[in-house]
Design a protein that fits this description.
Elements (H helix, E strand, L loop, with lengths): L4 E7 L32 E5 L14 E3 L19 E5 L3 E5 L5 E5 L5 E5 L30 E8 L5 E4 L6 H8 L17 E5 L6 E5 L14 H5 L7 E7 L8 H15 L8 E6 L10 H10 L6 E3 L8 H13 L14 H7 L4 E4 L5 E4 L1 H9 L5 H13 L2 H7 L7 E4 L2 E4 L3
Parallel strand pairs: 1-3, 2-4, 9-11, 9-12, 12-13, 13-14, 16-17
Antiparallel strand pairs: 1-8, 2-7, 5-6, 5-8, 10-11, 15-16, 17-18
Length: 426
């Protein structure tokens, strides 16, 4: 079964915790700290696999997690880093945040590999927190938390040309005529329930055609399998409308083209900015190969620069001329593959709701931690008066002082941040 959409939960590896330990050597009664650092958690990495063309690997399994880092050990032993998680997807896969449906990454064009979630860094052992005034720190840094998010995987077929049209107008027959593709063909609606790809070969290079399954009115609103099909048109450079010029289905080809264009615009207004051409199919059953339908099509659309080609997908009549025109249109299009820009950063989103945490230690000290605090301590010299005032102002602006007061902090209490102890004075 062709699968072009899947929702999964991915999780990076948590960083290993730093270790608290002290040297215990003969004749050294008060050995210094020797707690090792924790290992880094594994990353979640998506890579393009040339051999894949569906997302079926993600149909029956929903949760994927990288390996956490090991905790640090005594004697300065560093914890082992967690193994990365490699997830393989076909080219053209877009990864979105499942809740907002904003694009995180697009594995198309030159984008063949993306580190979507980075593993948590390992915590530092207590050996890093020894100072002249605190030679036996009983604190080690915890490893950074893992990031867990739900993502939506969408496969948007990468093809130069997209065939669109109502069911049973001959798209699959046309594709089998001009390419090496072998789509399922029969005389009933919705024979094609997945995009079929084929390559049109020319002496000086070819192009890829995708048979987009039959559209119906209301497709842009999700009627039928509308969204399942419309997403595959977004990457195509040229659109070929195929209509039944013989009227064997009892449909109005002009009304059909306008109806499909309305669905394209409703789904994505930029779709009609693409060059397009009309293939008036089934002329093999029209005496003389032309009728009033082909004339009406020319009168309706050629005034806007849209060419109409009477063809027969069965006999091949007119097909060569149509393909040469499509090739000319492609030559005027940008060569590079359309790649969606990233709109969402999982790390920023995950940590924005966790600016800091406040806990009570066993000795009654208030332990405050958070990525911003850790970063601020990393580049601020709090031993200088200017640096300490700067850090105090940061604490007030972040609302940390007020939060500590709400939890009962009083004058003279100890506030501990990553191995640094501060005495609070109002």
């Amino acid at each position: 079964m062709f699968t072009d959409r899947a929702t999964i939960i991915i999780k990076s590896g948590k960083g290993g915790d730093g270790h608290v330990s002290f040297r215990r050597e003969k004749y050294v009664p008060n050995g210094g700290p020797d707690g090792g650092d924790g290992g880094k958690g594994g990353d979640v990495i998506f890579v393009v696999d040339e051999g894949m063309n569906t997302l079926s690997d993600y149909r029956h399994r929903r949760k994927f997690a990288a390996e956490p880092g090991e905790d640090g050990g005594k004697r300065n032993c560093h914890g082992k880093n967690g193994s990365d998680l490699i997830l393989k997807v076909p080219e053209g896969t877009i990864i979105k945040d499942a809740e907002s449906e904003k694009v995180i990454a697009d594995l198309s064009g030159e984008n063949r590999r993306v580190v979507l979630l980075r593993g948590g860094r390992g915590g530092m052992g207590n050996q890093h927190f020894a100072t002249a005034t605190m030679q036996a720190p009983k604190y080690a840094q915890p490893g950074k938390e893992a990031i867990e998010i739900e993502v939506l995987l969408e496969l948007k077929v990468i093809a130069d040309v997209g065939l669109v049209g109502f069911p049973n107008v001959g798209k699959s027959t046309f594709l089998s005529r001009v390419t090496n593709a072998q789509p399922k063909i029969a005389n009933y609606h919705f024979t094609t329930l997945q995009p079929n790809l084929g390559v049109v070969d020319f002496e000086d290079g070819g192009f890829v055609i995708a048979d987009i399954p039959g559209l119906i009115e209301g497709a842009s609103e999700g009627v039928g399998l509308g969204h399942e099909f419309l997403r595959h048109i977004e990457r195509t450079k040229v659109i070929v409308h195929i209509v039944d010029a013989a009227g064997t289905e009892g449909r109005d080809p002009v009304a059909d083209i306008h109806a499909i264009n309305r669905e394209l615009v409703a789904y994505n207004p930029k779709l009609l900015d693409k060059p397009w051409v009309i293939a008036a199919n089934k002329i093999d059953v029209i005496p003389g190969g032309e009728n009033e339908i082909t004339e009406i099509l020319r009168k309706e659309f050629e005034k806007d620069g849209v060419r109409v080609y009477p063809i027969s997908a069965v006999s091949g009549q007119g097909v060569r001329e149509l393909l040469f025109h499509v090739k000319e249109l492609l030559a005027q299009c940008p060569k590079e593959t359309f790649v969606y820009e990233a709109e969402f950063d999982p790390a920023l989103h995950f940590y924005k709701d966790q600016p800091y945490t406040i806990e009570r230690d066993s000795d009654g000290a208030y332990v405050v931690e958070g990525p911003k605090i850790e970063k601020m301590l990393g580049y601020t010299n709090i031993d200088s008066e200017k640096g300490f005032v700067f850090f105090q102002r940061f604490m007030k602006e972040q609302g940390i002082i007020d939060a500590l007061k709400e939890q009962g902090m009083a004058e003279g209490d100890t506030v501990r941040m990553y191995g640094c102890d501060f005495e609070y004075f109002d």
